[in-house]
Write a structure and sequence with these properties.
Order of helices and strands: EHHEEEEH
Number of strands: 5
Strand order of the largest sheet: 1-5-4-3-2
Oligomer: single chain
Distance between the termini: 23 Å
Shape: elongated
Strand content: 15-25%
Mean pLDDT: 81
Largest sheet: 5 strands, mixed
Length: 108
């Protein structure tokens, strides 16, 4: 699964923050995210629908969600978002993709 621009930085920033709180917590966060991405790759429709073609899953034991597209040709994580901060900051990333998704749905 591909990461949109900015996602890797979000992951590393969160992991670094957790390591400052408790050594090793950042590694546990990254492991939880990795396991969640593997689940998403196997069962992409399991997440809660946010909009057509966009779903989210909670990161177990951490207050983060992964937002991802379900486009079979190009699935991608578009954000790793804290559940209590910067609400919907990722919408700009989604809006860039949305016309393409809408076109694909109309063409199908």
């Amino acid at each position: 699964m591909r990461f949109d621009e900015g996602v890797e930085d979000e992951l590393l920033d969160a992991a670094s923050y957790y390591d400052t709180l408790t050594p090793g917590a950042g590694g546990r966060f990254l492991l939880e995210v990795t396991c969640l991405i593997e689940q998403i790759e196997m069962f992409p429709q399991a997440g809660r629908s946010v909009r057509p073609g966009l779903r989210q899953r909670l990161v177990p034991t951490f207050p983060y969600i992964l937002l991802y597209t379900t486009d079979a040709a190009d699935p991608a994580v578009i954000a790793v978002a804290h559940t209590s901060r910067r609400e919907q900051y990722w919408m700009g990333r989604w809006e860039i993709r949305e016309p393409c998704v809408a076109y694909l749905q109309l063409a199908a």
